[in-house]
Amino acid sequence: xxxxxxxxxxxxxxxxxxxxxxxxxxxxxxxxxxxxxxxxxxxxxxxxxxxxxxxxxxxxxxxxxxxxxxxxxxxxxxxxxxxxxxxxxxxxxxxxxxxxxxxxxxxxxxxxxxxxxxxxxxxxx
Length: 125
Description:
Elements: H1 4-20, H2 24-40, H3 44-60, H4 90-100, H5 107-124
Helix pairs in contact: 1-2, 1-4, 2-3, 3-5
């Protein structure tokens, strides 16, 4: 995110997660606030991922979505299809997801945001 306020909010969310873990009400409100910045920046991927993230947390009272693989696999159409399997650490996964918003110009961050989007969508709908 380009805005200093958005960057400070990302840092706040990461600090809260590190210090206290996932506090549902707090993290949901912070993600909703961060989504406003994504909308102002006209970034539809970030906007959607943030909405799906807080909807998932509200619905499940947790964030049990896996962190994407370090080396994602693409299908014949160029769509990323590989996601990490195994144990999920909700706090670690949410922290990783939020950290991706620090640099929305990074190609790898965009790939991981797309994976999170697809996984959240399939879990919610």
